[in-house]
């Protein structure tokens, strides 16, 4: 099987500053759900930013191959069009741009880059409404500017809606459960689980095991000091919950 | 000790004096008007052309900009009139009664004067000044000002449109005052218009100004508006002059009790554009809004100077201005909310925001509050900066290319002003114009 | 509604004549001849035993001043000042720079005691080893009319390498340092009053903090105008060398007199790499009576130059006094990563006129500034905030946040905001907000419903209004300032 994502000896730092990713290797095959767990400050969010191409991070070594292409050479929008989706820990508010217009532009920009036919307005509106229903997002929220005045839960639901509409091959969920109550957590993980299929993969970044009760991973990695220091099955998450990260932090050091 | 610095008269000032002496006898109006012109020219001559040290012109040095006094534009011939009809494509989609002022002269032949709504009357300024109509007495009385540019306008005013709307009258479609310069030469026009609205009257007035590229013509235009009790005036002014033009515009508005007044400026064209707005809220319970969008690039220079005077209690005013700057453009916003003693319960908010797209653009803001009453809620805010990098990344991470992200954010930025305009057709026209500006930018 | 009505009534009845510091000290003094001329300047310079270059510097300033005119752009109104009708130098007679406090005229020591600045007690307490932390040590330079009469804690500061002395003394003892920095922030020709000051300044404080030194105590200068018809023109120069820190406090009072008195000071701060100066002022010059008779004209030029990278200047001012205040403590943010702060409370009552604010001039990359200004107007006063924030082409990454709020008490006063915001590059991010309102009736009602008297409620609200700024003051000063605010608004804020 050709892997969906292959990270080989990746090194990265904050531009002009601290080294954060330090010789990381990871292979994700189509259909797999991987969880990356680790202590705060281990560089988990940085990993998600480096993969999605956020300015201000510098890759100093290694490579990332995604669906056969060198991901590191692409701009953020090109990566998105390749099928990479980052579910932000803190989604941004965009005053003046309505949710619906944003979804429309995003979906069709990606289709255009991939050479696919664009969605017409009615098609898109229908799709978005259907997804909205599943996620408990009402029409009013869709008319409002993106994330402006949304609660933490509403923002995460909105992220999930975007993900389901854009149908990425790889979704990176960065602390998807932060700021969510249990009901919102269920709604969001339901959405994520609906997306699971043999050709779609997930990379779930989380500090707590709680989220993995709802999105059950195939593989669990322990991430410390900028790389993966231990890999196991889903039971590893429970083990970590009980023992903490201390032993792995020593290992990394 | 505080000796006044007497500046030498510049070549332009001397030329203006010569020009006034030679044309004043040919300008419209009787003895009263002639005296008014003389007094205005005297006001101008005393102050001279405004320069950096005249506070309200701090950022636009007219003394340095105005090197000469070009001749007055000649009245338009048939060919000019034929070209003028195609002016202002931006608002072409809006069904409006179009009144044309071509090269500074009202053009009845191409203006839509048929079937005027009941209570509406339209005349040329030259006609009104010459006839001794009671409306003539209103000219120069709406809001007192000693501004030198306005004084020049009063001294030289040649023509314009005089509109009156009787008590309770309302218009079935917008009025569109189309100001066009067709002459490709270096000429000057001084137009003055008047709009008097009776009690409860209501109107949407569009005003557009344009002219040829490559010509350093000068436009000095003014509008006096009297918005009667409970009347409702919505005005939009589009400035789309040629790339070398100098455009100075003054709005003098007196708003009476219970009226609603909304004024929007949309500035895209001209080398130097100065919009002066002097608004007096003379009665209680007025709802006033002043807004503006400037989209400028290259070496364009756009300066908005406004004063809203809250004279009576219980009025609300909102000022919302947005500037998008590219190239070497410079945008200036000088706004003052002035609350006179006794104007209690004033509720006034002013916001100006500038977005700098290039490393060489400049934005200057001076949002001022002058408050002489205690029971008020007044505030102003101002921001300048470039597009939010975090937002850009978030949107690009959803697959939208950078240029498109920028366009979306810029449209949203000016959308805050455009979306507040009441007339849907106007909103659409301005949103389209913004898009076109963005396309041409690339 | 009734509550507010009452407040307004009380404000009307404010007795602004209750200025606490209005007494006069009976002491003989020696003055320069009245008026201003080259002779008077030579007189001052000779009195100070100044080097020749200093005299030339003064004369140069004087000649330039003759061709300058007073600024007219501020929103202040006062009769023409006759600069020939003033004394430019007054010193307590028998005055000879004291070697220790024992040599200081007891009348003067008493004056400072009355003002709450017991110079002697401070030193004695220091001698008897007060337990650590019980009473923070503050070194004081006391300036009485034109001369510095006492500087405390000299020895202790010397041990730390800190130079803290009257500028007249510094001119003799450290001429190279003074020559290098004097006029380098506020040039002689900067403005009418600064140029006048350059010509005639008589004394003031000089501070030099050597590299890497954190000044072991707060430094403070206390200004007192005592003589009649005397202008006070002090000059302060503070240099924080690389990596050093100093906190400096300035206080001022004057006797109650019917004539106006001129105070035209210049303060220059120079901050080198990674150094910081925190400069706090509590200005309580005599404000004049309720009808606007008398009071100090406070026309002051204060400017700091963040010359080094990551240097920092923080201005904090509580302005309650003076008939007219014309003052804009500013920061030139030259060094990369340098930062400037301006925290201000300006209170005007009676017929006071305040035109004050700041300039933040961003020249270097990644410079930041913050302006928090709180104006409170009462009585028939006018209170204007005037400020400039500018970013030059090369000031990439400059950031400014400005918040200026005004509170009006009574309908006879004025509150004005005149900010200039000039950005010459897109990487500069400026945010400015300002509000003007009166004390919220809802808030007053809420407090009173919880049992506060109306006066306490108003005081509470005003204190809340100025809290952000008070927090910036050194602790002891903050308490002092809070009291002062209450007194300034007495009648309405208890």
Explained architecture:
The complex is a heterotrimer of chains A (253), B (442) and C (494). With 253 residues, chain A is an alpha/beta fold. Chain A is built from ten helices and twelve strands. Chain A has helices at 44-52, 76-81, 99-114, 121-135, 139-143, 152-166, 182-195, 210-214, 235-243, 246-252, and strands spanning 5-14, 19-28, 33-37, 57-66, 69-70, 84-87, 94-98, 145-146, 170-174, 201-206, 219-224, 227-232. Chain A has a six-stranded mixed β-sheet, sandwiched between helices. Chain B is of the alpha/beta class and 442 residues long. In chain B, the strands form two sheets. Chain B has a ten-stranded mixed β-sheet, with helices on one face. Chain B has a nine-stranded mixed β-sheet with strand order 3-4-6-8-10-12-14-16-18. The model of chain C is unreliable at 1-17 and 124-135 (pLDDT under 50). The B-C interface holds B 1-3, 55, 341-342, 344, 354, 356-386 and C 4, 8, 69-70, 72-73, 80, 83, 393, 406, 408-438.
Radius of gyration of chain B: 21 Å
Distance between the termini of chain B: 55 Å
User: How much helicity do the residues of chain C have?
Assistant: 10-25%
Q: Tell me the major beta sheet of chain C.
A: 11 strands, mixed
How many strands of chain C? Answer: 23
- Main beta sheet of chain B: strand number and arrangement? 10 strands, mixed
Low-confidence stretches of chain C: 1-17, 124-135
Most extensive protein-chain contact, per-chain counts? B-C, 39 and 41 residues
Element-level helix/strand string of chain B: HHHHEEEHHEEEEEEEEEEEEEEEEHHH
Question: Which band does the percent of strand residues of chain C land in?
Answer: 25-35%
Distance between the termini of chain C: 19 Å
Total E-strand runs of chain B? 19
Provide the β-strand percentage band of chain B.
Answer: 35-45%
| Unreliable spans of chain B | 1-5
Structural class given helices, strands, pairing of chain B? Answer: alpha/beta
Keywords:
heterotrimer, A: 253 residues, alpha/beta, six-stranded mixed β-sheet, four-stranded antiparallel β-sheet, 10 helices, 12 strands, C: alpha/beta, eleven-stranded mixed β-sheet, 33% strand
């Amino acid at each position: 099987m050709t892997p969906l994502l292959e990270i080989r000896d990746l090194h990265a730092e904050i531009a002009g500053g601290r080294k954060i990713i330090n010789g990381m290797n990871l292979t994700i095959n189509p259909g797999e759900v991987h969880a990356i767990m680790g202590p705060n400050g281990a560089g988990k969010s940085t990993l998600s930013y480096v993969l999605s191409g956020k300015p201000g991070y510098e890759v100093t070594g290694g490579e990332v191959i995604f669906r056969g292409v060198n991901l590191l050479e692409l701009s953020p929008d090109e990566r998105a069009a390749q099928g990479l989706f980052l579910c932000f820990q803190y989604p941004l508010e965009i005053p003046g741009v309505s949710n619906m217009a944003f979804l429309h532009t995003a979906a069709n920009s990606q289709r255009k880059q991939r050479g696919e036919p664009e969605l017409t307005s009615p098609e898109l509106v229908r799709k978005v409404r259907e997804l909205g229903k599943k996620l408990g997002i009402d029409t009013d929220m869709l008319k409002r500017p993106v994330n402006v005045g949304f609660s933490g839960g509403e923002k995460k639901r909105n992220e999930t809606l975007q993900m389901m509409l854009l149908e990425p091959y790889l979704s990176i969920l960065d602390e998807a459960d932060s700021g969510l109550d249990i009901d919102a957590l269920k709604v969001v993980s339901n959405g994520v689980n609906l997306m699971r299929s043999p050709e779609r993969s997930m990379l779930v970044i989380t500090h707590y095991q709680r989220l993995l009760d709802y999105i059950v991973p195939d593989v669990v990695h322990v991430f410390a000091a900028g790389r993966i220091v231990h890999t196991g099955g889903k039971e590893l998450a429970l083990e970590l919950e009980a023992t903490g990260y201390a032993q792995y932090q020593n290992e990394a050091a | 000790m505080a000796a006044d610095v007497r500046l030498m008269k510049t070549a332009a000032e001397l030329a203006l004096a010569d020009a006034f002496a030679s044309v004043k006898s040919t300008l419209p109006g009787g003895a009263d008007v002639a005296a008014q012109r003389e007094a205005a020219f005297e006001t101008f001559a005393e102050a001279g052309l405004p320069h950096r040290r005249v506070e309200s012109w701090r950022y636009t040095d007219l003394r340095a900009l105005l090197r000469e006094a070009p001749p007055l534009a000649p009245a338009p011939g048939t060919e000019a009139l034929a070209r003028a009809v195609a002016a202002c494509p931006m608002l072409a989609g809006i069904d409006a009664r179009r009144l044309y002022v071509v090269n500074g002269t009202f053009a009845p032949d191409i203006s839509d004067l048929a079937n005027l709504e009941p209570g509406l009357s339209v005349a040329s300024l030259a006609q009104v000044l010459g006839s001794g109509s009671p409306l003539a007495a209103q000219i120069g009385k709406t809001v007192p000002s000693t501004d030198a540019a306005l004084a020049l306008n009063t001294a030289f005013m040649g023509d314009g449109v005089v509109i009156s709307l009787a008590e309770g009258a309302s218009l079935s479609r917008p009025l569109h005052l189309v100001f066009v310069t067709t002459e490709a030469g270096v000429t000057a026009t001084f137009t003055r218009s008047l709009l008097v609205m009776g009690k409860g009257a209501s109107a949407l007035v569009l005003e557009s100004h344009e002219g040829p590229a490559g010509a350093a013509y000068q436009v000095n235009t003014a509008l006096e508006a009297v918005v009667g009790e409970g009347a409702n005036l919505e005005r939009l002014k589009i400035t789309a002059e040629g790339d070398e033009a100098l455009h100075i515009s003054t709005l003098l508005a007196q708003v009476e009790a219970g009226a609603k007044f909304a004024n929007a400026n949309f500035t895209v064209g001209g080398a130097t554009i100065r919009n002066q707005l002097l608004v007096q809220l003379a009665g209680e319970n007025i709802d006033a809004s002043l807004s503006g969008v400037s989209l400028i690039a290259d070496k364009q220079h756009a300066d908005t100077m406004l004063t809203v005077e809250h004279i009576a209690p219980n009025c609300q005013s909102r000022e919302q201005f947005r500037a998008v700057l590219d190239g070497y453009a410079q945008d200036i916003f000088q706004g003052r909310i002035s609350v006179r003693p006794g104007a209690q319960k004033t509720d006034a908010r002013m916001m100006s925001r500038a977005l700098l797209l290039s490393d060489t653009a400049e934005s200057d803001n001076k949002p001022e509050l002058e408050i002489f009453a205690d029971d008020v809620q007044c505030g102003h805010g101002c921001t300048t900066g470039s597009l939010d990098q975090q937002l850009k990344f978030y949107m690009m991470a959803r697959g939208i290319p950078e240029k498109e992200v920028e366009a979306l954010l810029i449209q949203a930025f000016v959308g805050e002003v455009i979306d507040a305009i009441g007339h849907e057709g106007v909103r659409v026209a301005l949103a389209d114009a913004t898009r076109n500006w963005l396309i041409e930018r690339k | 509604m009734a509550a507010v009505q009452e407040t307004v009534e009380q404000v009307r009845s404010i007795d602004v004549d209750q200025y606490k510091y209005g007494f006069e000290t009976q002491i003989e003094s020696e003055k320069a001849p009245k008026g201003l001329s080259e002779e008077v300047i030579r007189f001052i310079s000779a009195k100070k035993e100044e080097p020749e270059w200093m005299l030339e510097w003064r004369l140069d300033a004087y000649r330039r001043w003759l061709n300058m005119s007073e600024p007219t752009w501020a929103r202040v109104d006062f009769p023409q000042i006759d600069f020939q009708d003033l004394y430019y130098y007054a010193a307590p007679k028998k005055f000879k720079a004291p070697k220790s406090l024992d040599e200081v005229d007891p009348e003067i020591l008493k004056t400072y005691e009355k003002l709450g600045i017991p110079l002697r007690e401070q030193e004695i307490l220091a001698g008897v080893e007060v337990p650590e932390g019980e009473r923070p040590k503050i070194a004081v330079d006391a300036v009485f009319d034109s001369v510095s009469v006492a500087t405390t804690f000299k020895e202790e500061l010397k041990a730390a390498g800190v130079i803290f002395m009257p500028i007249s003394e510094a001119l003799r003892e450290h001429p190279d340092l003074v020559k290098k920095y004097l006029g380098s922030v506020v040039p002689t020709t900067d403005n009418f009053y600064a140029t006048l000051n350059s010509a005639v300044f008589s004394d003031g404080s000089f501070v030099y903090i050597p590299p890497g030194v954190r000044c072991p105590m707060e430094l403070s200068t206390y200004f007192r105008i005592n003589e009649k018809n005397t202008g006070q023109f002090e000059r302060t120069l503070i240099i924080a060398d690389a990596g050093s820190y100093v906190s400096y406090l300035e206080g001022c009072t004057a006797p109650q007199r019917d004539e106006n008195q001129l105070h035209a000071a210049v303060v220059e701060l120079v901050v080198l790499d990674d150094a910081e100066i925190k400069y706090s002022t509590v200005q309580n010059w005599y404000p004049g009576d309720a009808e606007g008779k008398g009071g100090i004209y406070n026309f002051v030029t204060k400017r700091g130059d963040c010359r080094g990278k990551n240097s920092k200047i923080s201005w904090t001012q509580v302005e309650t006094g003076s008939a007219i205040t014309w003052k804009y403590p500013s920061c030139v943010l030259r060094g990369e990563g340098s930062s400037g702060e301006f925290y201000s409370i300006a209170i005007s009552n009676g017929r006071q006129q305040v035109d004050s604010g700041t300039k933040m001039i961003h020249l270097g990359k990644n410079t930041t500034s913050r302006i928090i200004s709180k104006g409170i107007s009462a009585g028939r006063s006018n209170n204007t905030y005037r400020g400039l924030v500018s970013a030059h082409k090369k000031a990439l990454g400059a950031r400014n946040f400005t918040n200026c709020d005004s509170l009006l008490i009574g309908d006879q006063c004025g509150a004005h905001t005149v900010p200039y915001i000039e950005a010459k590059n897109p990487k500069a991010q400026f945010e400015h907000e300002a509000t003007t309102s009166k004390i919220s009736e809802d808030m007053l009602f809420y407090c009173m419903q919880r049992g506060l008297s109306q006066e306490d409620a108003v005081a509470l609200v005003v204190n809340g209004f100025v809290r952000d700024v008070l927090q910036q003051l050194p602790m002891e000063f903050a308490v002092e300032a809070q009291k002062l605010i209450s007194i300034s608004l007495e009648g309405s804020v208890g």
